[in-house]
Amino acid sequence: MGLRRPRPPRDAILVYNERVKLFSTFTNALALGLIGFAILRPLTGAAPGMAASALWWGLAGLVLHGVSHYILGYLKKEERDP
């Protein structure tokens, strides 16, 4: 039959997936902080020019949130025995 690549041990896949999920969670937490800052900063009565700045903070948060979803695409599936 054909040559098969050796499978990584199950534990290695689990550890890898947990690290990917941890990094995705960290990125999502940063995104939530930026979005929260963008919402709360104008409400505190800051200078009038801060509204435009808050928009950029909010957009940066939304981009990081999207990146956190993209990172989850790197999760590996464990191959099952036929």
UniProtKB/TrEMBL annotation:
The chain crosses the membrane at residues 20-43, 55-75. Keywords: Membrane, Transmembrane, Transmembrane helix. This is 2TM domain-containing protein. It comes from Dinoroseobacter shibae (strain DSM 16493 / NCIMB 14021 / DFL 12).
